[in-house]
Amino acid sequence: MSHQVDHIISRKHGGLSEPGNLAYACFRCNTWKGSDIASLDPRTGRMTPLFNPRRERWSDHFELRGFVIEPLTIRGEVTARLLKLNLDQRVSERRLLMSLGRFPRPPR
After folding, report:
1. Claim: this prediction has a pTM higher than 0.90
2. For the segment 74-99, what is each residue's pLDDT rounded down to a tens digit?
3. How many domains would you assign to the chain?
């Protein structure tokens, strides 16, 4: 699976092309995220910012349980939903990568 450089805050929203605003993203995540910087929490209807890997710790918002990425916070939930992190195909890919020792350990 190839990766792309993603603007965490898109240029459309004033984000800069500098290291603090760039992250590697798989093609699917980058496509599904697009220029979004937030998403609606379906329970409250409130706009919630997406997880920012440069400013926040992954382990504060997500946990890897088996092959599934479990959100721990509302921010984690809206990010996981928008990026479709737990579609069956993505969980299967994660399972395969783990069996080959090619899946990175989640950051702490």
Report:
1. yes
2. 999 999 999 999 999 999 999 999 99
3. 1
